[in-house]
Amino acid sequence: MKLRAFGSRDDQNGKGSPAPEARPEPDAGSGDGSGGDAGQKVDPKKPAGKGKPTPKRRDQERARGMRQGPVTAPLTRKEAKERRKAAEATMTKEERKEAKAAERAAREERRQLMMDGDDRYVLSRDRGDVRRFVRDYIDTHRRLINWFMPLALFVIIFQLIPNPTLMMYSQTLFLVLIAVVIIDGILLGRKVNSVVRDRFPDTEDTGFGLGWYAVMRATQPRMLRTPRPRVRPGDAI
């Protein structure tokens, strides 16, 4: 039987099957006739792999106590109390005293800033230039509504005295006081809205809400108003 050699006429014309790929010869230095990988030598100076990925730097610092966080705000008072107890458990007695003193100082500083009208610490109802102007307007004007709380206190005291005549007069005084507060409150709310529109023509903080805010501040005694008054009665604003 005759074998057709590689590179025959069909192959040369491109009609035959492609020639097989050349295979690598076995390593001459290997004794068992295996591939070239068996003859490679391992460098003893090259360190072996760790078998696990290198941890991130922030994870290493957090494990050593160098990094704190991420810290999320507590959602409830119970959670805040538990966090405070856990933090105090790792402190000494002196450190706990210093932490409590610093907390009291920070709380007092926040309260003072709130009383001064700082928008970062006041309630949302007191924020803004319009509300600050309304407070100054109320603090610089005297009205009948300013006497509501003192007179209401006297009425309550008279009601506790077991005297029918005094109780009748106190009830009448209370009804008159309520009527005065309603009438003066309506007039004050309309006046405040008018002044605010003239001073802040582009503001949307007007209407019943702004008038009610002015009335509530006007009914409080001056020493109990929060934020505290910045101006005196009669001052120009």
UniProtKB/TrEMBL annotation:
What keywords are annotated for this sequence in UniProt? Membrane, Transmembrane, Transmembrane helix
**Chain segments carrying region Disordered:** 1-111
The protein's matches in InterPro entries, at most eight in alphabetical order, are given as: DUF3043
> For this UniProt entry, which segments traverse the membrane?
144-162, 168-189
Q: Basic and acidic residues composition bias: which ranges?
A: 76-111
* Pfam families assigned: DUF3043
Question: What name goes with this protein?
Answer: DUF3043 domain-containing protein
